[in-house]
Amino acid sequence: MHFLVAGVSHNSAPVERLQRLSINRRALPELLHQGALHLGDVVILSTCNRTEIYSVADDRDLGINRILEFLAIIDERKEPSADPLSPYVYTLTDDDATRHLFRVAAGLDALVLGEPEIVGQVSHALRAAGEASSVSARLSKLFHHALRTSRKVRRNTAIGQSRVSVSSIGVDLLERGVGGLKGQTVLIVGAGETGVQSARALKRNGVSDILVASRRSESAVNLAAELGGTSLTIEEMPAAIAGVDAVITCTAAEYPIVSAEDVRRAMDARPDRPLFILDLAMPPDVELEAGRVTGVTLYGLEALTGIADEHRSERQAAAEHAGGIIDREVEHFKELLVGAESEPLIRALGERAEAVRSEELARALRRLRSLGDDDREIIDAMTRAIVKKLLADPISYLRELEDPESASAVARAFDLSEELPAEYQEDARSDREDGTA
After folding, report:
1. 47/173 Cα distance (integer angstroms)
2. Does one domain contain both 83 and 8?
3. Percent of the chain having pLDDT more than 70?
4. CATH code of the domain containing 279
5. What's the domain range around 370?
6. How confident is residue 159, by pLDDT bands cut at 50, 70 and 90?
7. Pick from 270, 194, 190, 192: nearest CA to 232
């Protein structure tokens, strides 16, 4: 059984190509159901910077081809594209797929090195797959170990010493553009995790007035109350643009919610006052044409790269330390997985040996009726020790196996084929049919 991943990220594709594959939380359940039909096991991780499909398969090449087909379905779900997807897609299998997920969860493959928000996104991807019944126990173990590894990296390295995220460097970029945020008025559109982090970063940087607009009015009210700001409905948002110095958008909308016309009307009401817009959403919340309105500066996710690189260089030593931890955890996970899969056979081997020992011990003791209880206990202990020593090497061997065929050979040697996990039983049956058993 092979772990597989295929996807696109900020490392492989431009923002506009990532945009086509972006999946918001409302669309995710239906796509997971489709993915389960197409792939069997599937977890979909879709963030501002990546969309990746994780699966497992007996046939590695066939499994990768099916994931690529499913990625194409996602890419074409709204409209056909003249730009082929294949040049931007990467595929990884087995240990490489495991290492990649561990690096993603730890923030080492993020636009902002060490970004903490990715942990919650990986956790949500697993939870959504569980709710859609699209994830197997094997794939679930991979994701749980990735989350544990992420916590270990953040606990044991400097990668998470200061909270640097897309939202925080976005606010940094905005501050550079505006020339300082103290005394400024900022409108935040979206009260999800990115919106909350952006709002808190603005407050730390001295913004005097924060307006919060969201499709979920309760979320807007709560965030505004926390920051001493003002909550708005999403319908009130376009009119509010005219009275602010900057706008940050970060919703999960599938289509732009701030139109070029909204921005044009706002600027007509304030012709001599510049407006800065930071769009942190994927797909974008703001129509591209809005950036061409006189007096408007529009930043998208691609504008964060320069600042992200600054933080990356500062954290490089921590990243190298984290990479070492991840390499060890990849090996540890493989050992745990192989050991878990060998346990049914190990138990069966122990039970068979104990059955033989007990039978032969009982036969011998029937012939040695003159023995006292103490002598019988000594013989019983001796036979247990012999069995334990004889099985020590075979059990150690089974726990270190990396392929089912070797387990099949052990099972056949002890006539335990029926005790194997399903994939091992298949190998044993194939061997018998081929005349090799």
Report:
1. 20
2. yes
3. 88
4. 3.40.50.720
5. 338-434
6. confident
7. 190
**Catalytic residue from among 4, 48, 338, 416:** 48
How many angstroms separate the CA atoms of 410 and 342, rounded? 11
Residues in the chain: 437
In a domain, residue 130? The reply is: yes
Question: Would you state the pLDDT for residue 350?
Answer: 84
Bridge partners of residue 90, in order along the sequence: 7
User: Do 83 and 150 lie in a common domain?
Assistant: yes
Q: Over 60: is that where the pLDDT of 393 sits?
A: yes
Residue carrying structure tokens 């002598």? 375
Q: What own/partner pairs with CB < 8 Å and gap ≥ 24 does 26-33 have?
A: 26/252, 27/254, 28/128, 29/128, 29/131, 29/132, 31/74, 32/128, 32/129, 32/132, 32/134, 33/132, 33/134
Q: Categorize the per-residue pLDDT at 434 as very low, low, confident or very high, splitting at 50, 70 and 90.
A: very low
Question: 């900057």: which residue's tokens?
Answer: 246
Neighbouring residues of 385: CB distance < 8 A, sequence distance ≥ 6: none
Query: How many domains would you assign to the chain?
Result: 3
Task: Give residue for tokens 């594959």.
Answer: 21
- The answer on pLDDT for 436 being more than 80 is no
- Is residue 405 predicted with pLDDT exceeding 80? no
Say whether both 30 and 173 belong to one domain.
no
If asked whether residues 152 and 67 sit together in one domain, one would say yes
Query: pLDDT for 93-143, tens place per residue?
Result: 999 999 999 999 998 888 777 777 888 899 999 999 999 999 988 899 999
Residues 131 and 206 in one domain: no
Q: Is the dihedral of CA 292, 270, 179, 280 positive or negative?
A: negative
48 a catalytic residue: yes
Same domain, 203 and 231: yes
Give the Cβ contact number of residue 363 at 10 Å: 9
